Amino acid sequence: MRVRGLVLSAVILAMPAALHAQGLTIDHAAVGCVVAETFPRFEARIDPAASVARALVHFRSESGQPWYAVAMKAEGESFSAVLPKPKKSLKSFQYYIDVTDRAFATSRTPEHTAEVTVGPAACEGKMVASAAGSASILLEVPAGAPATPAGFSSAGLAAAGAGAGVAAGAAAGGGIGAGAVAAIVGGGAAVAGAAVAVSKAGGGDEGDGGGGDGGERPTFYSVTFAMPGIDVSVCVGRPLGWCCQNVNPDSSGRFDTVWSPMDPNTARITGTVTDTAFNATIACTSGAASGALSATGSGGSYSGTFTFGSQRGAITVTRVQQ
């Protein structure tokens, strides 16, 4: 019995290593320093590259702050992402790389801290991120968080359509299904919100990212689908799901938006929002499926249900002022 117990223990101990060997391997040289007021570029080699469905760089200004994310793009077997410009006032930020394969298995690096300096000379002895001269960054924003991360500039931030959900990543053109969203969120510090366009009137990007032009601050509504999210695979012919999206109503409360994270013209949502109700229709632009969203509430917070094809689920809608 003792011998059998030892053998069984050895098998159990060996299992994590075997499972890790079957997953994705992330080869990343930790960045220790970035230069303020430049777009830092983060790179990683992911093996096997063909199995990558989604790769993200998650980052935050400091402990306790929300995690934002930028999808990494495939460049052969390497992947890269450009982050927003850190301001001179930011001393450091934390980041890690998170990867999901086509079987929904996840891998991630440890959390690293990158120091922000006023010039490359101050980075002596540390791994320095290369810098891009310009960038158009699709930023994934946590629900309810400021559109621009604290300590970073809004310059170069953009979005495809009105929003992009966390399940959109598709770094290698892959994408993941709604069924994987719960697993990703459970994997730690996942981005729960949607990407939004965050350029300021007047063009400047200095200050705290809170508007600065003296005008009315723009408002959007964050639509969150209860786990496991909404599966829109039928719209694009491959696994794709969303946890959340945004709509930007006009002054009368009407909106007509295409939700298209990494997949142009995936689904169209049209409807209205009032002080007490949110109602909309949603349909694949291909005509493959359609449904409706309905929620009631007050004070900018609504709860209700959605239908889409044969799917049924709960939704929450929250008014967010940038």
Short characterization:
By secondary structure, this protein is mainly beta.
Could you explain the architecture of this structure?
By secondary structure, the protein is mainly beta. The chain contains three helices and 23 strands. It has helices at residues 2-22, 181-186, 233-236; strands spanning 25-27, 33-35, 39-47, 52-60, 68-71, 73-75, 78-82, 92-101, 106-108, 112-117, 130-132, 137-140, 157-158, 219-225, 230-231, 241-242, 244-247, 254-259, 267-273, 277-284, 290-298, 301-308, 311-321. Strands 2, 4, 5, 8, 9, 10, 12 and 13 form an eight-stranded mixed β-sheet that branches. Strands 17-14-23-22-21-20-19-18 form an eight-stranded antiparallel β-sheet. A hairpin with a 7-residue loop joins β18 (254-259) and β19. The longest helix has 21 residues, at 2-22. The radius of gyration is 21 Å and the shape is globular.
Spell out the blueprint of helices and strands.
Blueprint: H1 2-22, E1 25-27, E2 33-35, E3 39-47, E4 52-60, E5 68-71, E6 73-75, E7 78-82, E8 92-101, E9 106-108, E10 112-117, E11 130-132, E12 137-140, E13 157-158, H2 181-186, E14 219-225, E15 230-231, H3 233-236, E16 241-242, E17 244-247, E18 254-259, E19 267-273, E20 277-284, E21 290-298, E22 301-308, E23 311-321
Parallel strand pairs: 2-10, 12-13
Antiparallel strand pairs: 1-3, 3-7, 3-11, 4-5, 4-8, 5-12, 6-7, 8-9, 8-10, 14-17, 14-23, 15-16, 18-19, 19-20, 20-21, 21-22, 22-23
